[in-house]
Design brief:
single chain, 7-stranded mixed sheet, 17 strands, 54% helix
């Protein structure tokens, strides 16, 4: 399809040419080109004609167009196609493309020249003639049945597609609500392009829940890093550094193994002084501590008893010997071992408590991220029981430390409890490492996770939709589409080809044209083709009177002639571009199809173009009529809009994008020309169109400002500028006595002066204008200033700031 006009060199009104953006085609096939009269729209249409389908424009006609428009021997034009190919004219290559143009050239070539009507016969007539025999009836019946089958399959597919759209809408809403960032949706996919997912509905829902968690997790990466750090810092101790066998031996050592009878007897005698068990237990420690006291007293020159202050020099050696016999090295060793074992049991108890806290934290993280660890089971362990056993062990050691005669037998279960704990912690550490490895892999990107969720939803949509038919809705839809395609591309073309051999060409052109005339709102006459008359073959048949006329000059208005020509173009396109694939591969160019039509027919024309060419690969519509473009614009949501201005095809100015009127744009251009804040316009170009702009702006302004005035010659039209007199403003309340050179005494003269100048620039093309008339730059600035001052005189706020 056409990408852009890459070159126009000395052709028609163009010495050079620039196209700022590419034409659109495909799903968004519509291109609108707006241009004022004389901007070169017809020249653009004729350039496309040079590359058009020859059934619409013959080779010699193309040559005539080129010769009429070329300015010198260097004249050439080039088009760039969307596939990168360049088309040139003139060229030795065959540049006939599936381009179909409706413009003045088409009208003159196919319908009428001037006032003489001469319609060409269609070059490829296939359907629409009267049925004359049984073969035609039989083939037509097959065509009818095939078309009914298409309608049935399309109806089934439409019903399936509506369900598909409904599911997509519901799932799209569910998708949007499942995300923190609301407002997301799922773009519906063509059923022809999808396949049923392998996953089950349950699997997809499970994946969806996982991805939802990952989506929320992607939003909380800082929290995830904190959880990972917490787990990494926790290092539970699985090996408790206590020797149960050694502790058991120490707890069962008796005093008789360590003491002498004398001191033992003495200790027992003193114990008898006390009834309190705790005090009895302290006697032995008191004696041991007494040994340490005697050891220090012995170092003195005169040893004194710490209790009675008597001198004990002659007794201290015997006393000390008794102590030494009792509290020998074995006693000290066992005492120290018990102290060490108490410390180790205390540390073990702390490790168990720390491990219990770690395990609780691990369970929290396991639950928090359980979607990733469904197969991991965290078995419980009775930490309290182990701690109780260790606490009892510590108590026994504490008592033994206080009373070396105390003996205690450890329970047989303690070794197993410690062994079970060690095995449990080893398993938990492995599970911790698995959890850490998994969490460390969850460095998630929100957009990627969102896309994963979107893909799961798309699959759920398809699985859900597929369940709406016993044989599978996707398969049913595709089978129907295949049947439709086969009938449309194979069966029907074959049947229509057979029919074409049986059809007689009976006035098919006239019937087709009359059909489209009716769609354009012209139903008071039909046309017939007088095949015997080579000079003027159009017969006008009026329905009311039954009269027939064949003189276009006397029979049809300009609007009806326009409608007739466009109806012929539509019918020719229908009958010659007669397959769906050809239509999809075609480019249609329409240049001002509404010339002379009244406003009531603008809408129907715009609608007809939309219906007939919305399936074409590319549509390009050129017009100077803003009301028509307003209607046409409403039918195409996505389209490219261009402005043809000063040898450029550019974006439509902001002042025009409402498609209401070019008034704002023309006002701005007039102001810009006088403004010192903008670059000086190219005077040679500006003088071709600014007088016309000025006149149109003044006519529009006067029309609305003096809406009660009408033309003297044509009562249904607004007053013309040359009819406006100073009497019209008598009695008006004016804000200014004068603006610039304008006052109420000279307004009519100034308007006539503007009309005189602008009339020379408002008709014919810009080449003729340049050759026939001349206006200096200073004079052009003067009349534009006068025109804008007239507007200011009546309305001080009516201006561009």
């Amino acid at each position: 399809m056409l990408k852009k006009i890459s070159k126009i060199n000395h052709f028609g009104v163009f010495d050079d040419f620039t196209q700022e953006k590419d034409f659109t085609h495909g799903d968004n096939n519509c291109n609108i080109i707006f241009g004022f009269n004389g901007s070169g729209k017809s020249t653009i249409a004729n350039i496309f004609s040079l590359f058009s389908n020859e059934s619409f424009l013959e080779k010699t006609e193309k040559e005539n167009i080129f010769n009429d428009y070329k300015n010198n021997d260097l004249t050439c034009v080039e088009l760039e196609l969307s596939n990168g190919t360049n088309l040139k004219y003139p060229s030795n290559n065959n540049n006939n493309k599936e381009i179909y143009i409706f413009d003045k050239t088409f009208i003159c070539s196919h319908v009428f020249i001037g006032e003489v009507g001469k319609i060409k016969k269609f070059s490829n007539t296939t359907v629409g003639a009267e049925i004359k025999n049984e073969a035609i009836s039989r083939i037509s019946e097959k065509i009818k049945l095939s078309e009914e089958k298409i309608n049935l399959k399309e109806k089934e597919n439409n019903s399936l597609y509506e369900k598909y759209q409904k599911i997509n809408k519901e799932m799209s809403a569910r998708f949007g609500n499942s995300l923190t960032d609301k407002g997301k949706n799922i773009k519906i996919r063509k059923l022809e392009d999808v396949d049923l997912p392998d996953e089950s509905f349950e699997t997809l829902n499970s994946d969806l829940e996982k991805f939802k968690i990952e989506y929320e997790l992607s939003k909380k990466q800082d929290q995830l890093k904190s959880d990972i750090a917490t787990l990494e810092q926790a290092k539970p101790e699985g090996q408790l550094k206590i020797n149960v066998s050694s502790i058991s031996e120490n707890l069962q050592i008796e005093l008789s193994q360590l003491s002498k009878d004398i001191l033992n007897k003495k200790i027992n005698e003193i114990k008898d002084y006390f009834d309190d068990d705790l005090k009895k237990k302290s006697v032995e420690r008191w004696f041991k501590f007494g040994r340490d006291i005697l050891l220090n007293i012995k170092k003195e020159s005169e040893p004194i008893c710490p209790v009675c202050d008597s001198e004990i020099s002659d007794k201290i050696d015997d006393l000390f010997k008794n102590y030494e016999d009792y509290f020998n090295e074995s006693y000290d060793n066992i005492f120290n071992k018990i102290s060490d074992e108490i410390q180790l049991v205390s540390e073990a108890m702390k490790n168990v408590i720390d491990s219990q806290l770690f395990f609780q934290q691990l369970k929290i993280q396991h639950e928090k991220y359980k979607v990733y660890f469904k197969d991991m089971v965290l078995n419980d362990f009775d930490f309290d029981l182990l701690n109780l056993s260790l606490s009892s062990l510590k108590d026994a050691l504490e008592i033994k430390k206080q009373n070396i005669q105390y003996t205690h037998v450890l329970p047989e279960s303690l070794n197993k409890e410690i062994s079970d704990y060690s095995d449990f912690i080893s398993l938990v550490v492995e599970q911790k490492n698995i959890i850490l490895k998994t969490l460390n892999s969850k460095n998630l990107d929100t957009h990627e996770v969102e896309e994963n969720i979107r893909e799961v939803f798309k699959k759920i949509i398809l699985v859900d939709f597929n369940s709406w038919h016993n044989d599978g809705a996707i398969k049913k839809y595709k089978n129907n589409s295949a049947i439709i395609k086969n009938i449309q591309e194979s069966v029907l073309p074959k049947l229509k080809s057979e029919l074409s051999t049986e059809l007689k060409k009976i006035k098919i052109e006239s019937k087709a044209i009359s059909k489209y005339l009716k769609k354009l709102g012209i139903d008071h006459f039909d046309i017939e083709i007088n095949e015997k008359n080579d000079n003027e073959n159009i017969i006008i048949k009026y329905k009311k009177s039954g009269k027939e006329k064949n003189k276009l000059k006397n029979s049809l208005s300009d609007a009806e002639k326009t409608a007739l020509a466009f109806s012929y173009f539509l019918s020719k396109f229908e009958y010659e571009v007669n397959t769906e694939q050809k239509i999809k591969d075609s480019c249609v160019v329409i240049d001002d199809p509404i010339s002379s039509l009244d406003e009531n027919r603008l809408y129907s024309t715009a609608l007809l173009i939309h219906k007939n060419f919305k399936k074409s690969k590319q549509l390009i519509v050129l017009s100077h009529n803003f009301l028509f473009l307003k209607y046409f614009n409403s039918f195409f949501k996505n389209k490219a809009v261009f402005f043809l201005n000063k040898c450029k095809l550019e974006n439509l100015p902001e002042e025009m994008k409402n498609f209401e009127t070019p008034y704002f744009y023309m006002m701005k251009i007039l102001h810009d020309f006088l403004s010192e804040d903008v670059a000086i316009c190219n005077y040679k170009e500006a003088r071709k169109y600014l007088p016309n702009y000025l006149r149109r702006v003044l006519e529009t302004f006067i029309c609305f400002k003096f809406c009660y005035l009408s033309s003297k010659d044509k009562k249904n039209q607004s007053i013309g500028l040359n009819e406006f007199t100073n009497n019209e403003i008598d009695g008006m309340e004016l804000h200014n006595e004068h603006i610039g050179d304008i006052n109420k005494e000279n307004i009519s003269d100034k308007l006539r002066e503007i009309v005189k100048v602008s009339d020379s620039y408002s008709h014919g093309n810009s080449q003729h204008t340049q050759e026939s008339h001349y206006i200096s730059e200073s004079e052009l600035r003067r009349i534009i200033k006068n025109g804008l001052d007239i507007i200011q005189f009546f309305d001080v706020n009516h201006k561009f700031k």
